[in-house]
Design goal:
One of its GO terms (biological process) is tricarboxylic acid cycle. This protein has 21 helices and 29 strands. The chain is α/β, with parallel strands linked by helices and 711 residues long. The chain is globular and about 75 Å long.
């Protein structure tokens, strides 16, 4: 609570004397997963570091200690000693015995991160947080299976900023501390940068945060949006919830179902405000985050948006809007009698159609574009290459590179159930289109057992009946399904695939045919662990988008958008995949209705040289008339970004292209001052809406500044 002493206001955490009592009752925790209560961190939480003496961990721990985090020591394999005035233990087990930690922060390089997580699970540390990117997907699948078996630990990550409780001064991760304030808004987000934007907006609106959970942007997360929502929903210290989703998986739709049930059961539910990034993302491309893509049978980000909106969540288009919108919602909630229901979207006094800040009406559906380009963070094998790879693994079937009659085929395969963190089967009659699927999840270690196969066939038969899909001679398929699924599951595990799909049909003589196979392989297994080298040797960079390949060499993610549309004249340069997706979304959708030529994520380790290289990549597209540099500095320093912008103006041929810059976050004043004093021909803004309006305005003008006629 807030108290006044000697003219000064101070904050006291009233629950620090009671470990792990922040929110979830024992019964609730057990009914969910049994470990969600470990997310309720605070002053009581004793934290250790794995990789404690490394440079990054040292700097991070020093900052967290100064902020008030209760760090009690760390681990350096094989060594005893002291670091930062705290004990260093030779193993995780020794640290547990000696220091009795409640949580561990794993600051270990990606090559050793999976083993470090496993050691923490084996030592039964309650909360395990891993921030490393590029941990192989199948390593995380194995880790999730360990967690389900032991039922002792809660895992946050990987590829996540971690978890932070401003209300309890506890940081386990690398969040930028200056933007956080203690309060009662909980945040769960896939994107780190978008979560920082959201928190910055909340803080500017005078709304502090209770706990902020980074689900991470990987294909499989230890703590999903579903888990995070459950934790925040039940937390008495959280009075409102911010949810940030993105393209990929189905967690947002699962949360929408939970919200609907929650609003029916609670007469005065907490306000929930949400955003979904990637609503204009092209199907078939990975948008920066390893998990930011639509896998087979997964819906679009627009479908997620609509599901959350229908559930009663208030939707915003940009994270800068979270603060004002949530402040209004909380004010309205406090003004209501406690026995009455919270306002729905449509009855909310702020749901005016003239208000750009957020939307309550039905939004238009936007067609998802498809690009015939290879994945940039997976290896995508199709055609004869995929046939040649799969043929030795599946016997007694014929293969074809072309699909047969759609009405007579069923898409079968193995993908990943991202919410459960397990592989799952794919069964999708062609007549249902891209979004219908009946999948059965299974454990990676067990594979598809005879009992599970019986369930798969039963589910397929139910699906056919429910959807009124007439699969000719379905009974003739069933003898082949077992061998096909077993073979695909074995291949999926052995070669660390993200997904494998093909269309199953029967010839007139009853011979099964697998046509048009597609294989997506995890590049982290190759790049981080040196595995699957034979398959990754098949990658043909010459056949890929050369701009994407050139960007990859510089640690940048670049995707060409609308490659055949001359009106796509807006170039984007953004830090963070989530913010980059959201920037393209907002510029492309009403009310701006612009057209972006690219998606560009500078990466989390951007330097001034990276920014300069990003300008070169964007300017290589001759369609671009204006570049929008949209930065929210978390790890990225706005002063460094400003240096990069000035370097680009000095060393790169800008060819008269206009530049609009928005800098917020870490050292924003420094960056803004550098831009203001540079004398460069660019325009700088604090707010996103003003910047976006100017970008679209400049994109609609010709080189002489005249407004282009619109048809």
């Amino acid at each position: 609570m807030w108290t006044r002493s000697g003219g000064r206001l101070s904050f006291t955490l009233s629950r620090t004397s009671k470990p792990h009592t922040r929110s979830i009752s024992t019964n609730t925790a057990k009914s969910d997963t049994g470990t969600l209560h470990h997310l309720q961190i605070g002053k009581h939480t004793k934290v250790i570091y794995q990789g404690f003496t490394g440079r990054v961990a040292t700097n991070n721990a020093r900052e967290s200690l100064e902020w008030g985090t209760n760090i009690v020591g760390g681990v350096k394999p094989g060594e005893d000693g002291e670091h930062l005035g705290l004990p260093v233990c030779p193993s995780v087990r020794a640290a547990v015995d000696r220091l009795k930690p409640d949580a561990t922060a794993i600051f270990v390089p990606m090559t050793g991160a999976a083993r470090a997580i496993e050691e923490a699970i084996e030592a039964e540390i309650p909360l395990i947080v891993a921030v490393a990117e590029h941990i192989p997907v199948h390593d995380i699948l194995r880790i999730n299976e360990m967690l389900r078996t032991t039922k002792k630990s809660r895992f946050v990550g990987a590829n996540s900023p971690g978890i932070i409780a401003p209300l309890g001064n506890c940081r386990i991760g690398f969040q930028p501390l200056p933007i956080y304030r203690p309060g009662h808004v909980g945040v769960i987000a896939k994107s780190g940068t978008l979560s920082y934007e959201a928190v910055g907006s909340l803080t500017r609106a005078g709304l502090g945060q209770s706990i902020c959970i980074g689900a991470g942007g990987d294909v499989v997360a230890g703590t999903t949006l579903v888990d995070g929502f459950k934790a925040l929903r039940n937390d008495p210290d959280t009075h409102a919830i911010v949810l940030v989703g993105e393209v990929g998986g189905s967690a947002e739709e699962d949360v929408a179902h939970l919200i609907q049930r929650y609003k029916k059961m609670d007469p005065n539910p907490k306000p929930i405000v949400a955003l979904v990034a990637g609503r204009t993302a092209p199907r078939g491309r990975i948008m920066g985050h390893a998990g930011a893509f639509m896998a087979p049978a997964e819906g679009t980000a627009q479908r997620k948006y609509q599901a959350l909106q229908s559930s009663g969540a208030v939707m915003v288009d940009h994270p800068e809007q979270f603060g004002p919108v949530l402040k209004a919602l909380l004010h309205a909630r406090r003004s209501m009698p406690q026995s009455s229901a919270a306002p729905t979207q449509t009855s909310s006094p702020f749901a005016s159609p003239q208000k750009r800040g957020f939307h309550s009406g039905t939004r238009p559906t936007f067609a998802t574009r498809r690009l015939n380009q290879s994945q940039t963070r997976q290896l995508h094998l199709t055609g004869s290459t995929a046939v040649d790879i799969l043929r030795p693994h599946i016997s007694d079937v014929e293969f074809s590179t072309k699909r047969g009659k759609q009405s007579n085929s069923v898409e079968v395969g193995i993908s990943i159930n991202r919410v459960q963190g397990r592989p799952q089967t794919i069964y999708r009659p062609s007549a249902l289109g891209p979004n219908g699927n009946r999948g059965v999840a299974y454990n990676l270690s067990n594979g598809i057992t005879p009992r599970l196969h019986s369930r798969i066939v039963e589910e397929c038969q139910k699906y056919n009946s429910q959807e009124k899909i007439q699969i000719p001679d379905f009974e003739q398929f069933t003898p082949y399904l077992r061998d096909i699924y077993n073979s695909l599951a074995a291949f999926h595990k052995a070669h660390e695939a993200i997904s494998i799909t093909a269309y199953l049909s029967l010839t007139s003589s009853g011979i099964p045919v697998l046509s048009s196979p597609q294989i997506h392989l995890d590049d982290s297994a190759f790049k981080s662990a040196g595995r699957q080298t034979d398959l990754f040797a098949l990658r043909d960079k010459a056949a890929e988008d050369q701009s994407s390949v050139a960007a990859e060499d510089s640690g940048i993610v670049y995707v060409t958008l609308h490659p055949d549309d001359p009106d796509a004249t807006i170039g984007t340069l953004v830090n963070g995949a989530g913010l980059a997706m959201n920037t393209v979304d907002v510029l492309s959708l009403p009310p701006y209705n612009g057209k972006c030529a690219n998606f560009l994520d500078t990466g989390g380790k951007a330097t001034s040289e990276t920014v300069k290289r990003s300008f070169e990549l964007v300017l290589a597209d001759k369609r671009v008339k204006v570049i929008f540099v949209n930065i929210f500095g978390g790890l990225t320093d706005c002063g460094m970004i400003a240096d990069g912008v000035m370097l680009a103006f000095k060393e790169v041929d800008m060819r008269g292209v206009k530049v609009v810059v928005r800098l917020r976050g870490t050292n924003e004043e420094v960056g803004q001052r550098k831009i203001a004093e540079s004398g460069l021909e660019l325009e700088a803004f604090d707010g996103f809406e003003e910047a976006a309006e100017r970008v679209v305005e400049l994109a609609g003008r010709n080189g002489e500044g005249e407004v282009r006629a619109e048809q």
